[in-house]
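Board notes, transcribed. Complex of a protein with flavin mononucleotide.
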Amino acid sequence: MILETDIFKTFDKGWPILTAGTKDDFNMMTISWGEMGTLWGKPVVSVFVRRSRYTHEFMDKEDYFTLTFVEYQWYFEQLGLLGSKSGRDIDKLKESGFTVFERPHGISFDEARLIIVCKKLFKQELDMEKMPEDVRAKFYKDGDPHDMYIGEVVEILSDTYKDRRSSNLYKTGDGTGDGSCRWTVCMTTKGVYTAELYFMGGGGAHQELYEIDKEVFDLAGTFENDDYKTENLIREKGRRLYEAADERQTQPWQAVADMDYDKLCFWCDIMGHKD
Ligand SMILES: Cc1cc2nc3c(=O)[nH]c(=O)nc-3n(C[C@H](O)[C@H](O)[C@H](O)COP(=O)(O)O)c2cc1C
Protein backbone atom coordinates (compact mmCIF):
# COMPACT_ATOMS: atom_id res chain seq x y z
CA MET A 1 0.00 0.00 0.00
CA ILE A 2 1.22 3.41 -0.87
CA LEU A 3 0.13 6.66 0.74
CA GLU A 4 1.61 9.93 -0.36
CA THR A 5 0.85 12.54 2.24
CA ASP A 6 2.27 15.38 4.27
CA ILE A 7 2.56 13.42 7.48
CA PHE A 8 2.40 16.36 9.91
CA LYS A 9 -0.61 17.96 8.28
CA THR A 10 -2.57 14.75 7.78
CA PHE A 11 -4.26 14.81 11.17
CA ASP A 12 -3.74 18.38 12.30
CA LYS A 13 -5.27 19.93 9.18
CA GLY A 14 -7.16 16.94 7.80
CA TRP A 15 -9.54 16.37 10.72
CA PRO A 16 -10.32 12.73 9.88
CA ILE A 17 -13.50 11.03 11.02
CA LEU A 18 -12.68 8.12 13.30
CA THR A 19 -15.30 5.38 12.96
CA ALA A 20 -15.65 2.01 14.67
CA GLY A 21 -18.44 -0.51 14.60
CA THR A 22 -20.60 -2.47 12.22
CA LYS A 23 -23.12 -1.25 9.64
CA ASP A 24 -25.94 -1.63 12.15
CA ASP A 25 -24.12 -0.24 15.14
CA PHE A 26 -21.23 2.20 14.78
CA ASN A 27 -20.14 5.62 15.93
CA MET A 28 -17.88 8.30 14.55
CA MET A 29 -16.18 11.46 15.73
CA THR A 30 -13.81 14.07 14.35
CA ILE A 31 -10.20 13.79 15.49
CA SER A 32 -7.06 15.83 14.93
CA TRP A 33 -4.47 13.94 16.94
CA GLY A 34 -2.78 10.96 15.41
CA GLU A 35 0.47 9.43 14.30
CA MET A 36 1.61 7.33 11.35
CA GLY A 37 4.69 5.18 10.94
CA THR A 38 6.16 1.74 11.39
CA LEU A 39 5.90 -0.49 14.46
CA TRP A 40 6.75 -4.16 14.84
CA GLY A 41 7.50 -4.16 11.12
CA LYS A 42 3.99 -3.03 10.20
CA PRO A 43 2.54 0.19 8.79
CA VAL A 44 0.60 1.69 11.69
CA VAL A 45 -1.63 4.58 12.71
CA SER A 46 -2.17 5.68 16.31
CA VAL A 47 -5.20 7.64 17.44
CA PHE A 48 -5.98 9.18 20.83
CA VAL A 49 -9.49 8.92 22.25
CA ARG A 50 -10.68 10.30 25.58
CA ARG A 51 -12.46 7.76 27.75
CA SER A 52 -15.57 9.93 27.91
CA ARG A 53 -16.25 9.65 24.16
CA TYR A 54 -19.01 7.37 22.96
CA THR A 55 -16.60 6.30 20.20
CA HIS A 56 -14.30 4.99 22.95
CA GLU A 57 -16.79 2.20 23.68
CA PHE A 58 -16.65 1.11 20.02
CA MET A 59 -12.86 1.38 19.90
CA ASP A 60 -12.69 -1.02 22.85
CA LYS A 61 -15.08 -3.64 21.53
CA GLU A 62 -14.28 -3.61 17.80
CA ASP A 63 -11.28 -5.19 16.04
CA TYR A 64 -11.05 -2.55 13.29
CA PHE A 65 -11.37 1.21 12.99
CA THR A 66 -11.35 3.53 10.00
CA LEU A 67 -10.19 7.06 9.30
CA THR A 68 -12.20 8.93 6.70
CA PHE A 69 -10.80 12.16 5.29
CA VAL A 70 -13.30 14.40 3.52
CA GLU A 71 -12.76 17.72 1.79
CA TYR A 72 -12.34 19.96 4.82
CA GLN A 73 -13.78 23.12 3.22
CA TRP A 74 -16.90 21.39 1.86
CA TYR A 75 -17.72 19.49 5.02
CA PHE A 76 -16.54 21.93 7.67
CA GLU A 77 -19.98 22.09 9.29
CA GLN A 78 -20.35 18.29 9.41
CA LEU A 79 -16.85 17.87 10.88
CA GLY A 80 -17.79 20.44 13.54
CA LEU A 81 -20.95 18.51 14.34
CA LEU A 82 -19.20 15.13 14.55
CA GLY A 83 -16.56 16.77 16.76
CA SER A 84 -18.90 18.49 19.20
CA LYS A 85 -22.01 16.32 19.56
CA SER A 86 -22.08 12.81 20.96
CA GLY A 87 -23.55 9.77 19.30
CA ARG A 88 -25.14 9.10 22.66
CA ASP A 89 -27.41 12.13 22.13
CA ILE A 90 -28.00 12.41 18.39
CA ASP A 91 -28.04 10.28 15.25
CA LYS A 92 -24.74 11.49 13.84
CA LEU A 93 -25.17 9.75 10.49
CA LYS A 94 -28.54 11.36 9.89
CA GLU A 95 -27.48 14.80 11.13
CA SER A 96 -24.26 14.85 9.06
CA GLY A 97 -25.97 13.62 5.91
CA PHE A 98 -23.03 11.31 5.13
CA THR A 99 -23.66 8.04 3.29
CA VAL A 100 -22.23 4.78 4.59
CA PHE A 101 -19.57 3.14 2.42
CA GLU A 102 -18.96 -0.34 3.77
CA ARG A 103 -15.44 -1.72 3.58
CA PRO A 104 -14.58 -5.40 4.10
CA HIS A 105 -13.45 -4.32 7.57
CA GLY A 106 -15.24 -1.31 8.93
CA ILE A 107 -17.42 1.58 7.96
CA SER A 108 -16.54 4.67 5.98
CA PHE A 109 -18.46 7.23 3.93
CA ASP A 110 -19.06 7.92 0.24
CA GLU A 111 -17.90 11.50 0.73
CA ALA A 112 -14.33 10.29 1.46
CA ARG A 113 -11.29 11.53 -0.44
CA LEU A 114 -9.03 9.25 1.61
CA ILE A 115 -9.86 6.19 3.71
CA ILE A 116 -7.44 4.36 5.98
CA VAL A 117 -8.66 1.08 7.46
CA CYS A 118 -6.83 -0.20 10.55
CA LYS A 119 -6.80 -3.46 12.45
CA LYS A 120 -6.50 -2.78 16.17
CA LEU A 121 -3.13 -4.00 17.46
CA PHE A 122 -2.66 -2.40 20.82
CA LYS A 123 -4.21 -0.07 23.39
CA GLN A 124 -2.32 2.00 25.93
CA GLU A 125 -3.90 4.18 28.60
CA LEU A 126 -1.91 7.40 28.72
CA ASP A 127 -0.46 7.96 32.19
CA MET A 128 -1.12 11.56 33.21
CA GLU A 129 1.56 11.34 35.92
CA LYS A 130 4.22 10.90 33.24
CA MET A 131 3.08 13.81 31.09
CA PRO A 132 4.89 17.16 31.05
CA GLU A 133 3.41 19.59 33.60
CA ASP A 134 2.28 22.12 30.97
CA VAL A 135 0.53 19.41 28.91
CA ARG A 136 -1.34 18.17 31.97
CA ALA A 137 -2.37 21.70 32.88
CA LYS A 138 -3.50 22.51 29.34
CA PHE A 139 -5.27 19.33 28.28
CA TYR A 140 -6.14 17.36 31.42
CA LYS A 141 -7.29 19.87 34.08
CA ASP A 142 -10.49 17.84 34.40
CA GLY A 143 -8.86 14.45 34.01
CA ASP A 144 -10.44 12.33 31.25
CA PRO A 145 -7.13 11.16 29.72
CA HIS A 146 -6.77 9.84 26.20
CA ASP A 147 -6.26 6.19 25.43
CA MET A 148 -3.93 5.47 22.54
CA TYR A 149 -5.05 2.86 20.00
CA ILE A 150 -2.49 1.60 17.55
CA GLY A 151 -3.87 0.03 14.40
CA GLU A 152 -2.16 -1.84 11.59
CA VAL A 153 -3.07 -0.23 8.26
CA VAL A 154 -4.84 -2.89 6.18
CA GLU A 155 -6.40 -0.79 3.42
CA ILE A 156 -5.88 2.65 1.90
CA LEU A 157 -8.25 4.19 -0.65
CA SER A 158 -7.50 7.59 -2.11
CA ASP A 159 -9.06 9.88 -4.71
CA THR A 160 -5.58 10.75 -5.99
CA TYR A 161 -3.65 8.95 -8.71
CA LYS A 162 -0.31 10.34 -9.86
CA ASP A 163 -1.05 13.64 -8.10
CA ARG A 164 -4.36 14.00 -9.96
CA ARG A 165 -7.50 14.15 -7.84
CA SER A 166 -10.79 12.83 -9.18
CA SER A 167 -14.12 11.39 -8.11
CA ASN A 168 -12.68 7.86 -8.42
CA LEU A 169 -11.14 5.93 -5.55
CA TYR A 170 -7.78 4.20 -6.02
CA LYS A 171 -5.72 1.69 -4.12
CA THR A 172 -2.11 1.26 -5.10
CA GLY A 173 0.90 -0.74 -3.99
CA ASP A 174 4.16 -2.37 -4.91
CA GLY A 175 3.61 -5.86 -6.20
CA THR A 176 6.70 -7.95 -6.67
CA GLY A 177 9.18 -8.51 -3.88
CA ASP A 178 11.81 -6.39 -5.61
CA GLY A 179 9.37 -3.49 -5.90
CA SER A 180 9.56 -3.23 -9.69
CA CYS A 181 5.80 -3.71 -10.21
CA ARG A 182 3.25 -1.18 -9.14
CA TRP A 183 -0.42 -2.18 -9.12
CA THR A 184 -3.34 0.25 -9.04
CA VAL A 185 -7.03 -0.55 -8.82
CA CYS A 186 -9.69 2.04 -9.53
CA MET A 187 -13.38 2.30 -8.60
CA THR A 188 -15.51 4.89 -10.36
CA THR A 189 -18.64 6.48 -8.90
CA LYS A 190 -20.57 4.41 -11.47
CA GLY A 191 -19.18 1.20 -9.95
CA VAL A 192 -16.76 0.31 -12.76
CA TYR A 193 -13.65 -1.46 -11.45
CA THR A 194 -10.38 -1.59 -13.39
CA ALA A 195 -6.73 -2.29 -12.67
CA GLU A 196 -3.29 -1.47 -13.98
CA LEU A 197 -0.12 -3.50 -13.53
CA TYR A 198 3.01 -1.56 -14.41
CA PHE A 199 6.48 -3.05 -14.41
CA MET A 200 9.72 -1.16 -14.73
CA GLY A 201 12.99 -3.01 -14.84
CA GLY A 202 16.36 -3.16 -16.54
CA GLY A 203 14.70 -4.56 -19.67
CA GLY A 204 12.19 -1.72 -20.05
CA ALA A 205 8.56 -1.02 -19.15
CA HIS A 206 5.48 -3.24 -19.37
CA GLN A 207 1.84 -2.43 -18.72
CA GLU A 208 -1.28 -4.59 -18.37
CA LEU A 209 -4.84 -3.28 -18.00
CA TYR A 210 -7.74 -5.31 -16.60
CA GLU A 211 -11.40 -5.04 -15.83
CA ILE A 212 -11.94 -6.41 -12.33
CA ASP A 213 -14.91 -6.78 -9.98
CA LYS A 214 -15.68 -5.43 -6.53
CA GLU A 215 -14.31 -8.53 -4.84
CA VAL A 216 -10.87 -8.09 -6.44
CA PHE A 217 -10.95 -4.35 -5.73
CA ASP A 218 -11.74 -5.00 -2.07
CA LEU A 219 -9.06 -7.67 -1.69
CA ALA A 220 -6.28 -5.76 -3.49
CA GLY A 221 -3.52 -4.77 -1.10
CA THR A 222 -5.04 -6.45 1.93
CA PHE A 223 -2.66 -9.44 2.02
CA GLU A 224 -0.01 -9.76 4.66
CA ASN A 225 3.47 -9.85 3.05
CA ASP A 226 1.76 -8.96 -0.22
CA ASP A 227 4.65 -9.64 -2.62
CA TYR A 228 2.98 -11.08 -5.73
CA LYS A 229 -0.46 -11.76 -4.23
CA THR A 230 -2.37 -8.69 -5.40
CA GLU A 231 -0.67 -8.84 -8.78
CA ASN A 232 -1.59 -12.51 -9.20
CA LEU A 233 -5.15 -11.92 -8.03
CA ILE A 234 -5.66 -9.20 -10.66
CA ARG A 235 -4.22 -11.51 -13.36
CA GLU A 236 -6.24 -14.55 -12.32
CA LYS A 237 -9.60 -12.93 -11.68
CA GLY A 238 -9.41 -9.91 -13.99
CA ARG A 239 -10.42 -9.66 -17.65
CA ARG A 240 -7.40 -8.55 -19.67
CA LEU A 241 -8.12 -5.45 -21.76
CA TYR A 242 -4.76 -4.30 -23.03
CA GLU A 243 -1.06 -4.94 -22.80
CA ALA A 244 1.92 -2.90 -23.98
CA ALA A 245 5.66 -3.04 -23.69
CA ASP A 246 8.53 -0.76 -24.33
CA GLU A 247 11.43 -3.16 -23.94
CA ARG A 248 14.98 -2.18 -24.66
CA GLN A 249 15.69 -5.24 -26.83
CA THR A 250 12.57 -5.13 -29.00
CA GLN A 251 10.25 -2.71 -30.77
CA PRO A 252 7.47 -1.27 -28.59
CA TRP A 253 4.33 -3.40 -28.97
CA GLN A 254 0.67 -3.34 -27.92
CA ALA A 255 -1.96 -6.08 -27.71
CA VAL A 256 -5.62 -5.04 -27.55
CA ALA A 257 -8.10 -7.53 -26.08
CA ASP A 258 -11.01 -5.11 -25.72
CA MET A 259 -11.36 -2.06 -27.97
CA ASP A 260 -12.86 -0.12 -25.06
CA TYR A 261 -9.69 -0.44 -22.97
CA ASP A 262 -9.05 3.32 -23.10
CA LYS A 263 -12.63 4.17 -22.10
CA LEU A 264 -12.59 1.72 -19.22
CA CYS A 265 -9.13 2.79 -18.06
CA PHE A 266 -9.57 6.49 -18.84
CA TRP A 267 -7.88 7.35 -15.54
CA CYS A 268 -4.51 5.89 -16.38
CA ASP A 269 -1.60 6.84 -18.63
CA ILE A 270 -1.77 4.11 -21.26
CA MET A 271 1.54 3.11 -22.82
CA GLY A 272 1.59 3.25 -26.61
CA HIS A 273 -2.01 4.45 -26.83
CA LYS A 274 -2.84 6.74 -29.74
CA ASP A 275 -6.16 8.62 -29.92
C1 LIG B 1 -11.13 19.32 15.20
C2 LIG B 1 -11.46 18.38 16.31
C3 LIG B 1 -10.52 17.44 16.70
C4 LIG B 1 -10.79 16.53 17.73
N1 LIG B 1 -9.85 15.61 18.06
C5 LIG B 1 -10.10 14.71 19.05
C6 LIG B 1 -9.14 13.69 19.36
O1 LIG B 1 -8.08 13.56 18.72
N2 LIG B 1 -9.46 12.84 20.38
C7 LIG B 1 -10.62 12.94 21.11
O2 LIG B 1 -10.84 12.13 22.04
N3 LIG B 1 -11.55 13.87 20.79
C8 LIG B 1 -11.32 14.76 19.78
N4 LIG B 1 -12.28 15.69 19.45
C9 LIG B 1 -13.54 15.75 20.20
C10 LIG B 1 -14.58 14.71 19.76
O3 LIG B 1 -14.69 14.68 18.37
C11 LIG B 1 -15.93 15.09 20.36
O4 LIG B 1 -15.84 15.09 21.77
C12 LIG B 1 -17.08 14.25 19.88
O5 LIG B 1 -18.27 14.93 20.14
C13 LIG B 1 -17.13 12.87 20.54
O6 LIG B 1 -18.25 12.19 20.00
P1 LIG B 1 -18.80 10.80 20.56
O7 LIG B 1 -19.21 11.02 22.02
O8 LIG B 1 -19.97 10.52 19.68
O9 LIG B 1 -17.71 9.81 20.44
C14 LIG B 1 -12.02 16.60 18.41
C15 LIG B 1 -12.99 17.55 18.02
C16 LIG B 1 -12.71 18.42 16.97
C17 LIG B 1 -13.75 19.41 16.55
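The first strand starts at residue 17 and ends at 22. The radius of gyration is 21 Å.
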